[in-house]
Design brief:
Blueprint: H1 6-21, H2 36-41, E1 47-60, E2 63-65, E3 74-78, E4 90-93, H3 99-102, E5 114-121, E6 129-138, H4 149-152, H5 161-172, H6 180-190, E7 192-193, E8 196-201, E9 208-210, E10 221-225, E11 247-251, H7 252-258, E12 262-263, E13 268-270, E14 273-278, E15 282-284, H8 290-303, E16 314-315, E17 326-327, H9 330-339, H10 344-357, H11 363-366, H12 370-374
Parallel strand pairs: 4-6, 12-15, 16-17
Antiparallel strand pairs: 1-2, 1-3, 1-5, 3-4, 5-6, 7-8, 8-9, 10-11, 13-14, 14-15
Protein name: Endonuclease
Domain Endonuclease YhcR N-terminal: 34-136
GO molecular function, one term: hydrolase activity
């Protein structure tokens, strides 16, 4: 009987000897991913798997870009998708074999996604980093939702009307402002087709179109100002002219057909925009996004109150506002918002803008009931 146990005893003896000599015996499933914070503090040349959110591409020791990525050679990870401090980021070198799948120039939609990278914990760009990566996984999951919106809206409790509008204005005015050129890449992320990561969805027509077909030619998509930029004459200036809470992809032809019209029901069919109608003084998008359009307009009327060098944007019940800083028709917009509540796409877009780009939210996506609280 004792002979049956000799192999096991021999294995135990070998393990003990290896331990005495300093060689660890680690089960294959014992490797557990560490946080970015741990990886930053453990720059000792050891091999580790690190899980974090993609927050940009490092281009120097203190610079991480979040758009216009120069190549596919590197990315930065953080423990939060909304992290903006480079001191809390891990710089990851991307080997050639992984660049097509994880390089940000080729895959800008990875921003905000959680991934796990295995490699050597050592400096990169003279900054805490990870090099010689042997594995990349993840990137298809949801973005970090960030803080509870209930905390974001602290101070609004019990308020209605002008008091609520004022409180929300103060909260959402704390934002990062984009340039008009940066809007292109932002929309490629916020309006990405959930069923085709190479495309964006046009707001009015609903058409899925290649991200690369942005421009000014017929059948390209361009940057539609849902609050028409002539209503307040803010143009494409950084601020209301570049606020992606109301900038959306749309076909050049459809964008031109909408022009600077107010919103209202009725009219005749719009070419290349199934479900859209227009007449001489108003435009209506397809029914599936009428609530989305209304909530973007409500956001603009709260965010821009005339205290930051731009016009005070307000709502009224007119469809002949011209270049005045007003947008209508408020009675119709309220009805659209009630009939078409926020869906998963609109909610995800709000999260992406908050976590990756402007770091402010559209309160009417989070709380549609506030529409009637402010405009009874």
């Amino acid at each position: 009987m004792s002979r049956l146990f000799r192999p096991a005893r021999a294995a135990l003896l070998v393990t003990a000897v290896l331990a005495l000599l300093g060689f660890g015996v680690t089960p294959s499933n014992a490797a557990t991913a560490i946080s970015v914070g741990t990886a930053i503090s453990r720059q000792d040349g050891s091999v580790a798997s690190v899980t974090g959110y993609v927050v940009g591409q490092p281009t120097s020791t203190t610079t991480v870009v979040r758009s216009n990525f120069p190549n596919d050679y590197a990315l930065a990870l953080a423990d939060s998708a909304s992290q903006t401090s480079t001191s809390a980021m891990l710089y990851v070198q991307i080997p050639a074999a992984f660049r097509a799948s994880y390089g940000l120039q080729s895959n800008p939609g990875l921003l905000g996604k959680q991934i796990t990278v295995t490699g050597t914990l050592t400096a990169y760009f003279s900054h805490p980093g990870l090099k010689n990566a042997t594995a990349f996984t993840g990137g298809g999951g949801s973005t970090d939702p960030g803080p509870d919106p209930g905390d974001y809206y602290a101070g609004t409790e019990g308020k209605t009307g002008a008091a609520l509008k004022s409180a929300l204005h103060t909260i959402i005015s704390e934002q990062t402002k984009l340039s008009y050129d940066q809007v292109w890449n932002a929309l490629k992320v916020t309006d990405q087709d959930p069923n085709n990561s190479a495309n964006v969805i046009e707001i009015y027509s609903g058409r899925s179109i290649s991200k690369s077909l942005n421009g000014g030619d017929a059948d390209d998509w361009n940057r539609e100002h849902v609050w028409a930029k002539s209503h307040g004459d803010f143009g494409t200036a950084t601020g209301p002219g570049t606020d992606i809470h109301h900038l959306r992809p749309e076909d050049v032809t459809v964008n031109s057909a909408r022009g600077n019209l107010d919103f209202d029901n009725g009219g005749t069919a719009v070419a290349q925009c199934s479900g859209c109608t227009a007449d001489s003084d108003s435009f209506a998008p397809r029914a599936a996004v009428r609530g989305d359009v209304a909530r973007m307009i409500f956001y603009m009327a709260v965010r821009y109150e005339g205290d930051d060098g731009f016009a005070n944007l307000e709502l009224n019940d007119s469809v002949s506002n011209g270049s005045a800083p007003y947008m209508g028709k408020i009675s119709v917009l309220k009805a659209w918002s009630a009939a078409d509540p926020p869906d998963a796409f609109e909610k995800n877009r709000n999260e992406l803008i908050y976590s990756q780009f402007q770091h402010n939210r559209n309160p009417f996506v989070d709380h549609p009931e506030w529409v009637n609280s402010i405009w009874p």
